[in-house]
C-alpha cells in the first residue's frame, strides 16, 4: 500500500514541511509523514488551528482528522495525548495531526483551508479523490422525485452552505438522512457526535436556520448515536 | 414568549431543558459562555454571555432583550445560576436575589448563614491553600472533611481522621485547585480556599424542591443508600420515595425550608443535600438549581411531566398541573469511575438493560475518553435508571444492572 509505505518509511521528511520531523517512538508502530504527501493545510487554516489550540484550557497541541466515509471529514481536538498504535502523525508548525489507518487512504490528496462562510467561517476539506476511488462517494439516500425531493435538495444545500462550514470549526458535520412529511432526520458526526451542546446546536441553530428558509419544515429529529461519539467537542462534566 | 436558557457548555442538562422548552412551545434563546458555531446565523436563538462575570452578563442580556424581549431566564445548572439571577434582577423578573445565590454557592458563606440563623451546623473554619497544613492539622477536630470552595460534584472533597491524613488531603486539594485554575475563571478567590468542617455521621438524603415567593414545595426526597463515609464522596444511588421514618422526613423538610430562608432564596428550583442522624437533620448544601447530571430523568410528575418542564413553567408563570411525583418508586445510579485511565469499552450493556425494573442506561463517557475518579475527577461514566413497585426493588435492580456492566479501562 503506497500510503502505508510512506507511513512506515522511517519518518524521513523533506520538501516544504515547515516543522522538523519527529523520530517515531521506539516500539510504537507509528510513523511520521511529510504533510504535503497526505494533507495540505493552508497558512490561514494553520493559524486558525493554532489559535483554537491556544485557547484550550488543557495543553492540547494535536488535532485528529478522521474520514468515516469518503468525502465526509471530521476534525477534532485530540485530548488523549498519545497517538494510537495505528495512527499516522503529521507534523505542522505548532501542532500535529493524527489520522487513523482506516481514514488515511481517504485523506490522501486532501487540502484543508479556512473559508469565510456565511456570517462566520469554518474549515473546509477539498479532495479531488473524493468523487472516486476506494469507498466511493458518501452513502446517502437519494432525494425522491417531486416536491419532497426538491425540499430535500434545498435542505442539503443549506446544510452544505451555511451549517457545515460553521460546525466544521468544532470538527463536526451534519448530514440529512431523510426528509418526510415536514420532518428532517439528521445525523451529527465528528465533534458534534456526543457533544453536550449538540441538542442546542440542532434545535436553536440548525432548525432555526432551516425553518427560516423553508417554512414547510416542522421539525428536525436527531438520529445520531451520541454514545458512540469518540471526540465530542464539549464533554459534560458539571452539575 | 421568549425564554433565555443559560446553558454552560460542560453541562449534562442541555438536552432535558431544551426538550422541555420545545414541549412548551416557547421561543428559546440559548446562551452559553462560549459562542456557538451558528450564533451569527441565528442571532436571536444562540448568544454568548460571560457567565463568570454576572454583572457583565446582565448588561449584555439587557441589551439583547431590547431587540428580543425576554419573558423568563433560567440557569440550567450550577455554572449558570448566578448570572441567571443577575439577569433576572436586571430585567425585573421574580428570581433569587444575587447575594442569596452567591451565598448558596459558597460553602463557607452557607455555614455562616446557618450559624447566624441558629440552625445546626458542624464546626467549621476556612483556610487558604498557602497556609501551613501541618500547623492547621493540630487545630481541627477529627474526623473532619476538607472541601474546596470552588469545586462541585464532590470534587476535591476528602475526609481526614488524623494529622497525617489532613496534611496529605490539604496538599492534594491545593494541587487539584491549581490544575483546575483555567476552569475557575471568575472564582479566583474561592479557588484559593478550603473549608474544613467536622464530619457528620449518618445517612445522606437529597431533596428536590420548588420555591415560589419563598414558599417551598417539596417535589421529591431521595435516599442515598450507599454509605458516604469517605475518604472520598462519590455519589452513586438515589432512590425515591425515602424509606426514612415520617418524622425524620419532616425534619429534613423543615431543615431545608429554614436554610433556604436563612440564605434568602425565594424563587425556582432547589436541590438540597443533608445528613440525618440521632441529633437531627444537618444541611450540607442547599443549591438554587435542580438535581445534576441526567438524574432528573427519573422524575415524573402528574401525567408524566418532567422536572425541567415544571421549572420552565414556574419561570414563565405558566400553570403547573401537578407537583405530585408519580406513585411508583424510582431511582438512578450515577455510574462510578472504578479507576483512572482511558475508557476502551463498556461490556454487558444489554444484560444490564435486561434487568427487570431497569428503564434506561445512558453512557455519557465515550470510548477513548480519559477518565479520572474522585477526588481529582468529576464526570460520571453514565446513568442507570430504574422504576419498580418499591424502593427496595429499585435499589436491587440498579445494583444488579451495575454488577453486569464491565468497564474496560487502560
Question: Would you write up a description of this structure?
Answer:
By secondary structure, chain A is an alpha/beta fold. Chain A has 2 domains: 2-131, HesB-like domain (Hypothetical Protein Aq_1857, Chain: A, Sandwich), CATH 2.60.300; 147-228, 2-Layer Sandwich (GMP Synthetase, Chain A, domain 3). Chain A has helices at 2-7, 35-38, 43-54, 104-107, 147-167, 198-213, and strands spanning 31-32, 39-41, 62-69, 72-77, 88-92, 95-99, 110-115, 122-126, 172-180, 183-190, 219-222. In chain A, the strands form 3 sheets. Chain A has a 5-stranded mixed β-sheet with strand order 1-5-6-3-4. In chain A, strand 9 and strand 10 (183-190) form a beta hairpin. Mean pLDDT of chain A is 74; it is low at 1-31 and 132-138. With 410 residues, chain B is an alpha+beta fold. Among the domains of chain B are: 2-96, Rossmann fold, CATH 3.40.50; 123-198, ATP-grasp fold, A domain (Dna Ligase, domain 1); 328-410, Phosphoribosylglycinamide synthetase, C-terminal domain (Glycinamide Ribonucleotide Synthetase, Chain A, domain 4, Alpha-Beta Complex), CATH 3.90.600.10. Chain B has helices spanning 14-24, 54-67, 81-91, 98-104, 107-116, 133-137, 163-179, 246-263, 307-316, 349-353, 391-404; strands at residues 2-6, 27-32, 46-48, 72-75, 124-128, 144-148, 158-160, 193-198, 203-212, 215-224, 237-240, 268-277, 280-287, 329-334, 341-347, 358-363, 370-371, 382-388, 406-409. In chain B, the strands form 5 sheets. In chain B, strands 3-2-1-4 form a 4-stranded parallel β-sheet, sandwiched between helices. In chain B, strand 9 and strand 10 form a beta hairpin. In chain B, helix 1 (14-24) crosses helix 9 and helix 2 packs across helix 3 (81-91). The model of chain B has no long low-confidence stretch (mean pLDDT 95). Chains A and B meet through helix 5 and helix 6 of A and helix 1 and strand 2 of B.
Amino acid at each position: 500500500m503506497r500510503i502505508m509505505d510512506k507511513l512506515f518509511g522511517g519518518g524521513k521528511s523533506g520538501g516544504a514541511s515547515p516543522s522538523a520531523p519527529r523520530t517515531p517512538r521506539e516500539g510504537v508502530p507509528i510513523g511520521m509523514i511529510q504533510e504535503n504527501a497526505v494533507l495540505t493545510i493552508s497558512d490561514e487554516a494553520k493559524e486558525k488551528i493554532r489559535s483554537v489550540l491556544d485557547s484550550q484550557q488543557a495543553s492540547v497541541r494535536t488535532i485528529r482528522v478522521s474520514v468515516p466515509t469518503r468525502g465526509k471529514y471530521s476534525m477534532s481536538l485530540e485530548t488523549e495525548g498519545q497517538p494510537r498504535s495505528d495512527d499516522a502523525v503529521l507534523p505542522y508548525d505548532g501542532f500535529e495531526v493524527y489520522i487513523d489507518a482506516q481514514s488515511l487512504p481517504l485523506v490522501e490528496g486532501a487540502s484543508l483551508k479556512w473559508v469565510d462562510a456565511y456570517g462566520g467561517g469554518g474549515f473546509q476539506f477539498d479532495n479531488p479523490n473524493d468523487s472516486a476511488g476506494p469507498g466511493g462517494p458518501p452513502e446517502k439516500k437519494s432525494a425522491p422525485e417531486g416536491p419532497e425531493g426538491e425540499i430535500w435538495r434545498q435542505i442539503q444545500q443549506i446544510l452544505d452552505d451555511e451549517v457545515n462550514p460553521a460546525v466544521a470549526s468544532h470538527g463536526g458535520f451534519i448530514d440529512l438522512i431523510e426528509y418526510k412529511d415536514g420532518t428532517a432526520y439528521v445525523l451529527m458526526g465528528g465533534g458534534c457526535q456526543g457533544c453536550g451542546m449538540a441538542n442546542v446546536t440542532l434545535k436553536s441553530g440548525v432548525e432555526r436556520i432551516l425553518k427560516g428558509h423553508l417554512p414547510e419544515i416542522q421539525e428536525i429529529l436527531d438520529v445520531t448515536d451520541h454514545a458512540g461519539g469518540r471526540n465530542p467537542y464539549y464533554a459534560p462534566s458539571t452539575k | 414568549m421568549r425564554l433565555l436558557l443559560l446553558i454552560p457548555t460542560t453541562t449534562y442538562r442541555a438536552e432535558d431543558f431544551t426538550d422541555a422548552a420545545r414541549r412548551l412551545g416557547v421561543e428559546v434563546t440559548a446562551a452559553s459562555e462560549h459562542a456557538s458555531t451558528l450564533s451569527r446565523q441565528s442571532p436571536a436563538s444562540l448568544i454568548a454571555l460571560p457567565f463568570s462575570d454576572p454583572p457583565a452578563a446582565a448588561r449584555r442580556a439587557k441589551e439583547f432583550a431590547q431587540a428580543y424581549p425576554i419573558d423568563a431566564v433560567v440557569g440550567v445548572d450550577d455554572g449558570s445560576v448566578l448570572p441567571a439571577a443577575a439577569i433576572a434582577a436586571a430585567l425585573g423578573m421574580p428570581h433569587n436575589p444575587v447575594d442569596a445565590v452567591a451565598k448558596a454557592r459558597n460553602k463557607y458563606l452557607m455555614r455562616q448563614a446557618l450559624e447566624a440563623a441558629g440552625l445546626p451546623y458542624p464546626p467549621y473554619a476556612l483556610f487558604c491553600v498557602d497556609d501551613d497544613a501541618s500547623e492547621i492539622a493540630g487545630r481541627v477536630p477529627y474526623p473532619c472533611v476538607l472541601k474546596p470552595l470552588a469545586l462541585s460534584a464532590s470534587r476535591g472533597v476528602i475526609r481526614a481522621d488524623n494529622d497525617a491524613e489532613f496534611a496529605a488531603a490539604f496538599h492534594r486539594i491545593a494541587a487539584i485547585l491549581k490544575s483546575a485554575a483555567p476552569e475557575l475563571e471568575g472564582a479566583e478567590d474561592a479557588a484559593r480556599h478550603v473549608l474544613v468542617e467536622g464530619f457528620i455521621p449518618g445517612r445522606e438524603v437529597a431533596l428536590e424542591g420548588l420555591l415560589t415567593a419563598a414558599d417551598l414545595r417539596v417535589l421529591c426526597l431521595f435516599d442515598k443508600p450507599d454509605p458516604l463515609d469517605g475518604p472520598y464522596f462519590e455519589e452513586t444511588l438515589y432512590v425515591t420515595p425515602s424509606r426514612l421514618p415520617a418524622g425524620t422526613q419532616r425534619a429534613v423538610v423543615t431543615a431545608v425550608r429554614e436554610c433556604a430562608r436563612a440564605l434568602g432564596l425565594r424563587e425556582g428550583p432547589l436541590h438540597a443535600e443533608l445528613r440525618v442522624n440521632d441529633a437531627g437533620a444537618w444541611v450540607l448544601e442547599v443549591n438554587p438549581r435542580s438535581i445534576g447530571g441526567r438524574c432528573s430523568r427519573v422524575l415524573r410528575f402528574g401525567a408524566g411531566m418532567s422536572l425541567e418542564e415544571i421549572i420552565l413553567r414556574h419561570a414563565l408563570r405558566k400553570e403547573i398541573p401537578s407537583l405530585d411525583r408519580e406513585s411508583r418508586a424510582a431511582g438512578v445510579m450515577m455510574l462510578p469511575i472504578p479507576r483512572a485511565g482511558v475508557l476502551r469499552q463498556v461490556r454487558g450493556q444489554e444484560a444490564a438493560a435486561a434487568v427487570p425494573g431497569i428503564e434506561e442506561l445512558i453512557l455519557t463517557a465515550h470510548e477513548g475518553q480519559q477518565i479520572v475518579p474522585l477526588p481529582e475527577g468529576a464526570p460520571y461514566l453514565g446513568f442507570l435508571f430504574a422504576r419498580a413497585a418499591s424502593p427496595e426493588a429499585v435499589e436491587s435492580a440498579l445494583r444488579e444492572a451495575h454488577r453486569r456492566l464491565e468497564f474496560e479501562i487502560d
